[in-house]
Amino acid sequence: MSTMTSTLLGRGIRRGLLGGQRRWQGILLVVLVARVVRIFGARRPVAQRIDLEAGETLEVRHLAGGGVDR
After folding, report:
1. d(CA 1, CA 8)
2. Fewer CB in 10 Å around end: N or C, the chain?
3. Vertex 18, ends 17 and 20: CA angle to 5°?
4. Beta carbons of 6 and 13 less than 8 angstroms apart
C-alpha cells in the first residue's frame, strides 16, 4: 500500500467516519473500493504438477513478464 493511500485511508476514517464530513466519507469509499479491486483483480500464480514418464517432454508456451520468443 502506498503512502498516499494509507494517509487518505487514515484521514478518511478520522474525518469522515468520526468527524462526519461528507467529502472525507467519499474519499474513504473510493480508497476502500480501490483496495478491494486491487485484491480481487490481481493475477494469481498458476502452478501445475505433472508426472512425466521417461522420454516425455514438457513445452512451456507462455512466459509471464514478456518472455522473448526464440
Report:
1. 11
2. C
3. 65
4. no
Residue spans of the domains in the chain: they are 3-41
Q: Count CB-CB contacts under 10 A for residue 13.
A: 16
* CA–CA dist 31, 3 (Å, integer): 12
Res 11: pLDDT: 95
pTM, to two decimals:
0.59
Q: Are 12 and 31 in contact (CB under 8 A)?
A: yes
10-56 pLDDT, tens digit each: 999 999 999 999 999 999 999 999 999 988 888 877 788 889 999 99
